[in-house]
Amino acid sequence: MRLGTEQSANVQRSPWEGRSHGHGRTRRPVTTTSASPSNLVGAPPADPSSLKTSKKKNAAAKALACRNRNRQFVLALPQPPASICKLTSPQNSVSSSRQSPHLRRAPSPLQLSLSISLRNHAEALRSRGFHSNDTLLGNGVVGVLAETCNMWERRAPLTPSHCARLLLGAGRSGTRVKRIIVQPSTKRIYHDAQYEDAGCEISEDLSECGLIIGIKQPKMILPGRAYAFFSHTHKAQKENMPLLDKILEERVSLFDYELIVGDDGKRLLAFGKFAGRAGLIDFLHGLGKRYLSLGYSTPFLSLGQSHMYPSLAAAKSAVIAVGEEIATFGLPSGICPIVFVFTGVGNVSQGAQEIFKLLPHTFVDAEKLPEIYGAKNLSKQSQSTKRIFQLYGCIVTSRDMVSHKDCGKYFDKADYYAHPEHYEPVFHERIAPYASVIVNCMYWERRFPRLLSIDQLKQLMRTGCPLVGICDITCDVGGSIEFVNKSTSIERPFFRYDPSTDSYYDDVEGDGVTCLAVDILPTEFSKEASQHFGDKFSKFVASLASSKQLVDLPPYLRRACISHAGRLTSLYEYIPRMRKTMIDLEPTKANPLPEKKYSNLVSLSGHLFDKFLINEALDIIEAAGGSFRLVRCEVGQSIDDMSYSELEVGADDTATLDKITDSLTSLANAQGGDHNAGKEIDLAVWVGKVNECETGDTLDKGGQKVLILGAGRVCRPAAEFLVSYSNNYGVNDNNTDQIHVIVASLYQKDADEIVDGIKNATARQIDVADIGSLSNLVSQVEVVVSLLPACFHAAIAGVCIELKKHMVTASYVDDSMSKLDQVAKGAGVTILCEMGLDPGIDHMMSMKMIDEAHARKGKIKAFTSFCGGLPSPAAANNPVAYKFSWNPAGAIRAGKNSAVYKFHGETIHVDGSNLYDSAKRLRIPELPAFALEHLPNRNSLIYGDLYGISKEASTVYRATLRYEGFSEIMATLSKIGFFDAANHPLLQDTNRPTYRGFLDELINANNVSTTNVRTEASGEYDDKLIARLLNLGHCKEKEVAVNTVKTIKFLGLHEEAQIPKDCSSAFDVICQRMEQRMAYGYNEQDMVLLHHEVEVEYPDGRPTEKHQATLLEFGKVENGRSTTAMALTVGVPAAIGALLLLQNKVQKKGVIRPLEREIYNPALELLESSGIKLTERVEI
Hints:
Elements: H1 55-67, H2 82-88, H3 109-127, E1 141-144, H4 160-167, E2 179-182, H5 192-197, E3 201-202, E4 211-213, E5 226-229, H6 241-249, E6 253-256, H7 274-293, H8 312-329, E7 339-343, H9 347-356, E8 361-363, H10 369-379, E9 391-396, H11 398-401, E10 402-404, H12 413-418, E11 423-425, H13 427-430, E12 437-440, H14 454-462, E13 469-472, E14 494-498, E15 503-505, E16 513-516, H15 526-546, H16 555-558, E17 561-564, E18 567-568, H17 574-583, E19 598-606, H18 613-623, E20 627-634, E21 643-651, H19 654-672, E22 683-689, E23 704-709, H20 715-723, H21 725-728, E24 739-745, H22 748-755, E25 761-765, H23 771-778, E26 783-786, H24 793-803, E27 806-809, H25 815-818, H26 821-827, E28 830-832, H27 841-855, E29 859-871, H28 889-894, E30 899-903, E31 906-910, E32 920-924, E33 927-936, H29 941-946, E34 955-963, H30 966-976, H31 995-1004, H32 1018-1031, H33 1038-1051, H34 1066-1077, E35 1086-1097, E36 1105-1114, E37 1116-1118, E38 1121-1123, H35 1125-1142, E39 1150-1152, H36 1157-1169, E40 1174-1179
Parallel strand pairs: 1-2, 1-4, 2-3, 4-5, 5-6, 7-9, 7-12, 8-9, 12-13, 13-16, 23-24, 23-26, 24-25, 26-27, 27-28, 28-39, 29-34
Antiparallel strand pairs: 6-17, 10-11, 14-15, 14-16, 17-18, 19-21, 19-22, 20-21, 29-35, 30-31, 32-33, 33-34, 35-36, 36-40, 37-38
Pathway: Amino-acid degradation; L-lysine degradation via saccharopine pathway; glutaryl-CoA from L-lysine: step 1/6; Amino-acid degradation; L-lysine degradation via saccharopine pathway; glutaryl-CoA from L-lysine: step 2/6
Protein name: Saccharopine dehydrogenase (NAD(+), L-glutamate-forming)
Family: In the C-terminal section; belongs to the saccharopine dehydrogenase family.
C-alpha cells in the first residue's frame, strides 16, 4: 500500500480496558478496645455517624492503639469450618479418648488421599527449599487491589466490616493483620471513605504490603509478595500463561481462591448463587421487551436489570411487585402458558429458581408439560381473552434430555457418563416444544449430545414452538445450546438469533429467539457478593498475611499456593507438562502424534483441577511410556461445575495404549465409587479413536466454505460479497454452490461483530499461532483468505499447502512467501497474493491496458500509476486535508521511504529525507474539482519487470496521491523535528513539559530566541512562529509557513497542557496528537482514487495513444452500518480471488499475483458487478 494507505485488518480492542485514577486520603488504622462486635461483624454500622469522632477522641484512640498494639483482644476471628479443622487439627488426626465410639468414623478414601497428598506436599516443599530461605514476607500488611480488568467489576475480596474485624487483631497468636492498604477506586461498591473509617489506609502504593488481594488479575505484579485472586492459571490455559510467567519471574507466592478446598474437595470460596439470581432478573427484564415487540404488554416490562437496584433485596422486591401484578391482573392468554425450563440442579440453577419462586408459579414434572398445552388448545377458541395468573416451572436433568438408543433399556446415569454414545438427544422432542424460556445452568462437555442444536431449533421454529428466549447463565459459547456463539455484556446483555436465516442481531425485535449470555453476572450484586465472599475469605487472611514460611501455613492454604519463590509448588508441576504439549507439538490430521505409532482420544471429565486428578492421569500416561497432547480443555467455573479435557494419547504399540486406557479407567472407577447410590462423580473417562472423534469445531453446513482469517474493517465486505454472490449478482454458475463463510479471529467478539446479520456466515475464535487448531479449521474449507498482517501469511500458507487448500492474501509478496512458490506448485496449490486495492486492482487495471496494447502490436512508451486513500472532500476539513482511520505512525514512517523510478529514460533516485519535497502538483482532466499532488512510491522499477515493459517504456512511475499542500506541511513538521523517533531528553523527566514548551524546545535547538513568547498574544505568537519557520529555512514561502502554523494550532501543539507520560519522543507526541485530532468523525466518509495513464506508440506510424483508467470510490453508510471505501476496495477483490479459486478458474499454481488474463478479466467484471466502477478512456 502506498505511503501508509490503510489496507490491513484492524483489530478492535475492548472499550472497557481502563485504569483506576481514584485518589484518597491516607490514615493509619485506628484500634480500639471498646468497639462493639455487633458493629464490626457482618455489616457496616447502621448509623455511619457513630464512626465519626472528634479530633480529641481520635487522638485518644490512636494513643490507646499504641499502648495496646500487642495486646490480645477478646473479639475472635472466626475459625475455619469444621470440615477443614477436622482434617488439619493434630488432635483430630487420631481418635480422642473423650469421643464417643458411636461418633467415630473411619476416614473416607478421599480424606485419606487428601491427607496423604498434603503430607507429601509439605515434604516436597521442605525438600525443594520452600522454607527458611524462601519465605513469604509475612509482615501482616495487606493490600486490596482496585479492580481494572472490566468496567463492571465492582466486587471486593473484603468489605470494610471484614477489614475492621481483621484490624482489631482477632486471630490465633501470631497471625495479626497489622495494616490494610486499599487502592483507591471510584467504582468499587464500597467507597474509599468506608474503608478509611474502618481503619484502612487509602493509597495507590502497595509496596509495603506482604499480601495483596483482589478479585481478578491485577494490572501490575510487585516482586516478592504474596497475591491472592482468581488467576485461572492452574488449568494451563494458554491465555493465562503470560500471567503465570510474570508471577514466576517476580518470585511471587500465588494463591488461587478456586484451590482453597475442604476435606471433601469442595471449593470454600466462590460467589455462590449470585450468577443465577442476577441472570434470571436480567432475563426477565429482557423478556418484557421481547413480548412487547411481539405485541404483548406484560408486567415484566417494569423490571430493571440486576445492577439497576441498590441491593439484592431491592431487586427481589421489584420481582415480587411484578409477581403481584401478575397475580392481580394476569398475563395475556396469547403468550400463555409461560413455561420456564431450568437445566441443572447446582448453585447456579438454585439461584435462578430462587428468583423465579418470587413470582406466582407452579412447578410441574417434565411428563406433565403436554397436558398444560393440551388444556390451552382446548380453550383457545372460547377463551381467547382469558388472563393467566401464574407461570410454570420445570426442572430437567440428563434423564429428560437423552434416551437410550436401545428401546429395551432405560436411562442409567452411570452408563450415560461412561458411554454417552449409547444415548441420543430427546430434549428437542420432549421438553423444548413446550418451553417459553430455557434457563440453562447445566454442565456440558462435547462428548455428550447437545441440549439443543441449530437444526433442532430450526425444526422447532417451523412447528410453532412457543420458545421466545434462552437465558444461558452458563455462558457456554458453542456449548450445549449450539447457536450461542458469543458472550454478551452487562450493558448489552441480549442478542437475537433467527434460525430461519441463520442470522444474529443485537436487538430483541424481529423473528427468532432472544438470548442472554453474560459472563460476569455476580458483579451485578457486588455488595452482597462481596459480603458473601469476604465472610469466608476473611477467615484465611490473617494466616496468609502473617505466615513467614510457606510450610507454616495450614494445609488447605498450602494446597492453594501455585507458585512460590520463583517455582511452581509440587501439586502444580503438571502445568509445564501441559504447556509443553501445546508449544512443542504441532500435529496435523495426517500425522497426529509423530513420535508415537498408535493413538487414542481420551476424554477426562470431573474435578480434574480442584482435586488434582489431572496430576494422576498424566503420571499414568508418562509412567507407561506414552505421550499426550492437550487437544481441548474446558474448565468448570463454579463449585458444582466439572472440568473437561481431551488428551490425544500416543504409544508405540497397542498393548501400551490399552494399558494406559485401562489404568485411566481404573482411576475413574476408584474416584467414582457407587454411581447408582447418587455419589457425585469425581472423574469420568471416555476413549475413542482420534480420527473418529470431534476434536474441535466442525462445520457441518452444506456448500463450499471459505475461511477468512482476521476480523478488521476489510473483512465484512469480503464476507458479504461471498455469501451473497449468486443472489446479488445474477450469477448462476454450476461450479459454485452456496458459499458458507467462516470468519476467525483471535477475539471472538470481533468475529461476532463481523458476521452479525450476514446469512450463512459463522464466527470462530482462533489463535493462528496454534498450528493444530489452525490445521483443523483449514481442513474443513476449500479456500483460505488471510486478512491478517503479512507476518502471519507464510505460516498460514504452509498449513494450506500441507492440506492442499488454496489461499488468497491482499499483501505484497515478500521473501518468506516467495520461498513457498515451488512447494506450492508441487502440491498443486495456488497462493494468490496482492489481491486487494494497491496491490491488487492496480495490477489488474495495468495488465489489462498493457496486454490490450500489446495485442494491437503497440509498445508501452510511458506507464504512470497514481493511488491514494483520502478523506472525501467534505471530510478533508483540517489544514492537512488528511485523516487517519488507524494509528498514523505507519503513514508518517512511509513518508521517510526512499524512492526510485524511471522518467524519460533517466533513473531518478529520491532520498527518504527529501520525499515530501519531491511532491508534484496533479490535475486529472476528468476530475477537475480535485486539487491533488503526488509523491513517488518506493521502487517503481520492479513493476516494469512484473508488467513486462521495462525494456520498452522510457517512463515507469508509481506514486501516492494526497490533496495539494499536504507534503509541504509534513515536510515542515519533519524539519522542526516532530518525526524524530529518538527519545528526547525533555520527555524523560517526571516533570512533564507542556506542548508549547516542547515546541519551543524543538525550535530552540536551532538557536533561535523565544524570549517572552509564552506571554505574547495569540496573533503575535503566530506571527513570531511564522517568522521563525521562514528564518530557519524550514519553509521557502510564507503561505507554507502560515499553513504549518495553522496545523500546529489545529493539533494543539501550542497548548499549555502537559504531554502524557507515554510520550518519550517527538514522534510519539505528533502521532498522539494526530490520532486524536485527525480521526474520521462518525458520519465522515473516506475516498479511494486510483488513476493509470499508459502511453502507447505503434511502429507502423499510427498515432500515439494515451490510455487512462480511473477508479473513484467513496465510503458508504447502509442500514446504519458504515463501510469505508478502503475496506470495500480491499475486501471485495480478496473475496473475488477466493471465488475464482472456488470456481477452478485459476489454473496457475504456486505463489502468484493477479497478472494473468484468467484472473484479471473475470475479476474486473465482478468488481463492476459489485458496484465498484472503473472508467476508461483513450486520447490520441
